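Operator note (shift B, R.M.): manual run for DUF5666 domain-containing protein requested after the automated queue skipped it. Running by hand, logging everything below so the morning shift can see what happened. Input copied straight from the record, untouched. If output looks odd, do not overwrite the archive copy; leave it for review.
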Amino acid sequence: MKRKVVAMIGMVGLLAAAGVAFAETDSIGSTAESARPKPMVLEVGPGGKVLMRGIVGSVSTTSLTVKSWGGDWIVQVSGSSEILPKAANLVDFKQGDFVGVQGVVNQSANWTVDAEIVRDWTARKALGEEIKQNTQLVREEMKSGTPRNFEGTVSDLDTSARTFMLAGEEKTYSVVLTTDAIILKKNRATLDFSKVQNGDRVRVWGSVASSTITASVFRDVSL
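Run finished. Output pasted below as returned.
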């Protein structure tokens, strides 16, 4: 089995000798927000450790086909593999996405990597744009009137009616979301309101009459 690992390492060396320029060595294991995608990369270490970046050719429930140096690689993704951005699933990856893979060469299958970390750089860029747009929408909404912020814990949640009780430090309010309310996660990414649960810590922006808040912005800081 070790022969396959050695053979692949030798193949990478031949590609490099033929003039293929591999990008600088680093690790995609870091989740630092300052990280940026690099050009296409294929690096195989002496122990069979792999760092690869390339373009998704196809997606299944347990693997990706990634086009990188040397051709198409099968990337096996298991339950222990870390998928980034956070909260992403393998089925969220799309053909044509630029991805990074960190893992180990599979010793029983050719051109196959058992992934430890898989990062979708394309999805991360799209998420960044979504957060930027949502932040701007919230700013514009907050400039449009005289409501104010409220923060507390959710109870008596009705996701269909989009209503709940909000227990603040001094008072409990009944909250009704407007039909066009902006609904966000903690990081300001768009949130499906059905994911909200009783006990979540949330912030709302809206006008209050008696003990009822009509909210046009909802942000779940627990998600």
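Quick read of the result: Helices lie at 2-17, 121-143. The chain has two domains: 2-124, 145-220.
Leaving this for review. - R.M.
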